């Protein structure tokens, strides 16, 4: 006698491996090799409303090809009423590997699988009432866009809001089309590039140099959220510390290989942390010991 | 912590053991098969003692023992007919609870796009026969990985909840055993339904759960005599006395993590083949990858979970390349995870002291020695 059972019978409605089909509603080309997809989850009986917070990610799945962890880039709906995010699930994706190449082949109306949301969020609620320094490098702006959108949507709940953004060259500035809207809503947007072109009038150099020029308001609570290449975050955090930020006010979003997304497959292991479950957003003082170890 | 306390908590154990002979053990197997269990236990295959389905006591490795050492595993004839006179081999019970391949999702192409569903899985009711103390500890460690609140693996939970465990107390130790250092054995303390201690005349049987008690009711038995109990004590003590390998676990987390920059990692890396054998035989290693399995038409796709290892180069692959692209970094990852950061993640060491990684390492790397050298307790 064998016992035949469906795994979901054991844990009703809670199979972390289960992907849900989502349809592509729109595709927007951003910069070379980078596009933003807007997905709509397909209606399903007993489906739980999809709610996420800035900083969290989904596993996007192209059947036959595989899954890839992609952060949410649209405005979050965590404090909204029940229901999926009105704008759908917004993902900005760079074509770099097998799965992202397969995603690039998809067209509006095609379906793909979604599991999520997973991971820890940027601590937006805790940052309310204080100043917020957002530091992004390259595509690292994608996981930070929901932060900026939250700052824009609830501008009066925060103090000074600054986006420090570094890209390799002016044509690689992500979401440049949104900068005027963000500035109009009272978010300072400061850009720098590694390689300038003749018509570039902004800063040249690493993004941490921009942070160095900033100064904190004494007595004012300030949070720093950083995402980008590891070396960039390392220097951004150092600049934050130099400004006088306590290590507990600096948050980084880490990237590792993720396959299960809930702390079970082991791929994203980093010191004491599963980046998928304990991160991707981690507090600087928690990860600082591991940041200095090569090949960890 | 495990979300289902019924699975892992120690249940009351009857203090006085019962005695059965080999016919009694056969009756026990028969009873389990009658009520629908598939009994799996130690059997000899290709020169090693492995775990496989069995129906009779005669299929056990009667009169065989194993010789183990760094990079060494050999079977030898015993001069008696004992059924459990050996230690652990290359298999562990994780192959039943966390099978090397598991389907996790099925996708079907339709006119409206992909339809995705959780595959129905067949779960056999398994009775594990001959589980050693270190292996009970290993199951408890994997429970923390797969049954922790918030990260419960549905298929593991299903398999785990259909288990009957007959433990076997070790009456001898291999040269590779160090369960006494890890505080996991050799005596079976909890996590079993019944526990056997083999003595010359048969078996002492300790009841460890209500499930064990009710199954054992119909098996012919009598209470053990004091001389038999003394014999059991002596034989279990023999296993303790034979364990010579030591791992100093005092403050091991911090002592190891202080050594991330130690040059000795390069020395281990010069010997380590990064072959992943240690992680495959380890009863607690849980890392896995997920693969796509296609039908020829590409209209039905299965996602399949497969055992993987932190020793494989592409295991840590990110868009810029592997995070750990040297053998040094991969061995360091494995050892520091197993013995140090595992404690941060799961509140327990990832090592149960079974010694499999020592025996099955093709070049005989012995983690107890590497730890002693890394932490300065032993000269390189």
Walk me through this protein's architecture.
Chain A has 296 residues and is α/β, with parallel strands linked by helices. Chain A has nine helices and 16 strands. Helices cover 22% and strands 30% of the residues of chain A. Chain A is globular, with a radius of gyration of 20 Å. In chain A, 49% of the residues are buried. Helices cover 32% and strands 26% of the residues of chain B. Chain B contains 14 helices and 19 strands. An eight-stranded mixed sheet of chain B has the order 3-2-9-12-13-14-1-15, sandwiched between helices. Chain B starts with a helix and ends in a 6-residue tail after the last helix. Residues 1-10 of chain B have low confidence and may be disordered. Classes of the chains: A alpha/beta (296), B alpha+beta (380).
What are the secondary-structure elements of chain A, in order, as H or E?
A: EHEEEEEHEHEHEHEEHEHEEEHEH
Q: Give the DSSP E fraction of chain A (strand runs of 2 or more residues).
A: 25-35%
| Count of DSSP strands of chain B | 19
Distance between the termini of chain B: 38 Å
The biggest chain-chain interface is:
A-B, 53 and 65 residues
Oligomeric state: heterodimer
- The number of helical runs of chain A is 9
- Strand order across the biggest sheet of chain B? 3-2-9-12-13-14-1-15
Largest sheet of chain B: 8 strands, mixed
Rg over alpha carbons of chain B: 22 Å
Outline type of chain B: globular
- Assign the structural class of chain B, choosing from mainly alpha, mainly beta, alpha/beta, alpha+beta, or little secondary structure: alpha+beta
Rg of chain A, rounded, reads 20 Å
In this structure, how is the largest beta sheet of chain A organized?
7 strands, mixed
Number of helices of chain B: 14
What class, by secondary structure content of chain A? alpha/beta
User: Share of helix among residues of chain B?
Assistant: 25-40%
The amount of helix of chain A comes to 10-25%
Low-confidence stretches of chain A: 1-13
Please report which band the strand proportion of chain B falls in: under 5%, 5-15%, 15-25%, 25-35%, 35-45% or over 45%.
Answer: 25-35%
């Amino acid at each position: 006698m064998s016992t035949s059972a469906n795994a979901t019978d054991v844990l009703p409605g809670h199979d972390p491996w289960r992907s849900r089909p989502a349809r592509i509603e729109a595709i927007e080309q951003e910069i070379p090799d980078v596009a933003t997809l807007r997905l709509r989850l397909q209606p399903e009986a007993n489906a739980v409303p999809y709610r996420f917070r800035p900083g969290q990610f989904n596993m996007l799945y192209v059947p036959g090809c595989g899954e890839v962890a992609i952060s949410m880039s649209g405005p979050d709906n965590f404090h909204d009423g029940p229901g999926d995010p009105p704008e759908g699930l917004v993902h900005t994706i760079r074509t770099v590997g097998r799965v992202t190449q397969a995603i690039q082949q998809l067209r509006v109306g095609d379906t793909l699988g979604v599991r999520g949301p997973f991971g820890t969020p940027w601590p937006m609620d805790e940052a309310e009432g204080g100043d917020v320094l957002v530091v992004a490098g390259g595509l690292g702006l994608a996981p930070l866009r929901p932060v900026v959108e939250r700052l824009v949507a609830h501008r009066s709940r925060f103090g000074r809001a600054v986006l420090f953004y570094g890209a390799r060259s002016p044509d690689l500035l992500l979401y440049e089309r949104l900068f005027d809207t963000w500035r109009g809503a009272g978010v300072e947007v400061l850009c720098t590039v590694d390689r300038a072109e003749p018509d570039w009038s902004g800063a040249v150099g690493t993004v941490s140099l921009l942070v160095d020029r900033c100064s904190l308001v004494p007595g004012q609570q300030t949070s720093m959220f950083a995402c980008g290449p590891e070396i960039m975050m390392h220097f951004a955090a150092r600049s934050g510390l130099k400004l006088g930020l306590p290590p507990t006010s600096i948050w980084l979003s880490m990237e590792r290989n993720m396959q299960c997304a809930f702390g079970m497959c082991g791929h994203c292991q980093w010191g004491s942390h599963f980046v998928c479950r304990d991160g991707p957003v981690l507090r600087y003082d928690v990860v600082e010991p591991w940041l200095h170890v090569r090949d960890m | 912590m495990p979300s289902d306390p019924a699975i892992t908590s120690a249940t009351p154990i009857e203090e006085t053991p019962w005695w059965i002979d080999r016919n009694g053990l056969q009756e026990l197997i028969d009873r389990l098969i009658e009520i629908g269990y598939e009994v799996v236990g130690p059997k000899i295959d290709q020169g090693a003692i492995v775990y496989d389905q069995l129906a009779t006591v005669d299929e056990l490795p009667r009169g065989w023992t194993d010789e183990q050492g760094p990079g060494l595993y050999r079977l030898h004839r015993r001069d008696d007919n004992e059924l459990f006179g050996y230690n652990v081999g290359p298999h562990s019970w994780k192959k039943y609870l966390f099978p090397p391949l598991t389907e996790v999702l099925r996708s079907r192409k339709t006119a409206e796009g992909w339809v995705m569903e959780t595959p129905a899985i067949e779960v056999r009711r398994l009775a594990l026969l001959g589980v050693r103390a270190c292996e009970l500890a290993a199951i408890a460690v994997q429970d923390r990985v797969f049954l922790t609140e918030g990260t419960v693996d549905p298929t593991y939970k299903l398999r785990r909840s259909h288990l009957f465990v007959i433990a076997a107390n070790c009456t001898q130790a291999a040269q590779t055993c160090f369960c006494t250092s890890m505080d996991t054995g050799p005596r079976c303390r909890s996590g079993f339904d019944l526990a056997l201690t083999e003595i010359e005349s048969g078996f002492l049987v300790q009841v460890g759960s209500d499930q064990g008690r009710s199954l054992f009711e119909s098996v012919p038995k009598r209470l053990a005599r004091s001389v038999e109990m003394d014999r059991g004590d002596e034989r279990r003590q023999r296993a303790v006395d034979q364990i010579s390998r030591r791992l100093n676990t005092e403050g091991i987390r911090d002592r190891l993590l202080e050594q991330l920059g130690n040059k000795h990692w390069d020395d281990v890396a010069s010997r380590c083949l990064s072959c992943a054998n240690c992680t495959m035989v380890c009863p607690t290693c849980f890392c896995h990858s997920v693969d796509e399995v296609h039908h020829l038409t590409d209209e039905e796709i299965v996602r399949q979970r497969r055992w993987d290892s932190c020793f494989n180069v592409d295991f840590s692959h990110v868009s810029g390349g592997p995070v750990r692209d040297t053998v040094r970094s991969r061995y360091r990852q494995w050892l520091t995870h197993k013995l140090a950061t595992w404690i941060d993640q799961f509140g327990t060491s990832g090592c149960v002291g079974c010694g499999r990684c020592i025996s099955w390492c093709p070049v005989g790397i012995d983690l107890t020695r590497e730890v002693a050298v890394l932490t300065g307790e032993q000269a390189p």
